Amino acid sequence: MGEQTGRDQQEPSGPDVPPAPAPDPASAAGGGPSQPSGPVYGRVTRFGVPGAPAPSARPPAPGASPSWAPWTPGPAPWTPPAPLPPGWTGPPDVGWSAPPGPVPGWPAPLPGWPAHARPRPRWRRDQYARWGSRVLGDLVDHAPAYVALVLQLLAYLPLYAGLLRGDVDAEPRWGLLVGGLALNLVAIGWNLWNRWICGGRTGQSLGRRLTGTRLLSQVDGRPVGTLNAFLRDLLHVLDGFAWIGYLWPLWDEERQTFADKIIETVVVRTVDERPVGWS
User: Fold this and answer.
1) Residue 24: band (very low, low, confident or very high) from pLDDT cuts 50, 70, 90
2) Minimal CA–CA distance to 118: which of 10, 234, 252, 221?
3) H helices of 192-235, where?
4) Domain locations in the chain?
5) Are 54 and 47 in contact (CB under 8 A)?
């Protein structure tokens, strides 16, 4: 009875208090951060209590960008310029401009620089060939064709006369007819060599050489070449309609036929054939 009374006096009266948890041996031995003693609500991560900063993390300075800002590309890497063509030199850093046009009497530009084209040539009206000189030159150039035409007319003349008299047995003169056809083939070969090859390359056929005229391009003042000389003669068909195209040089400012205007050619006098302003 006495022991029971003494035991009651030693024990405190009041609610039961749970015992304090024992410290973690690993934390005490390693010196790591102490774990919370009370209950923890939420997901516990490897960095500790949710919401608590990591032991080594520091708050960012005011105005500093966070470490998770998106990456932006830097400037493009420098690449060396392409090598210059042979004969070129790099332009100076200050005050460089394109080279001026060529000066009369100076050598041609260096390789690689564009050539400066001359202006479109112009001739005075008195420099163009006169209409009579052009007609005479064409008669000389087409002499074989004209002779062949005369032979063919003479060959068919008896046939036409016999038909007019009612003679159905009339025949042409076969000798003249064959000679005219053969001369036509000669005239075609003569035109090929005289007017298209020689006349296209040099500007002068036999007829133009005898009359002192030359066929030149209205674009650059040079001979027109074989192809353009052939096309020009082919386009004379347009001049043959009522002979208007052949008569056009009589009042035209540049004394051109229709074929000349299409191919852009002029016929000038060789005594003064240099365009105005050309040296």
Assistant:
1) low
2) 221
3) 199-202, 206-211, 226-234
4) 125-272
5) yes
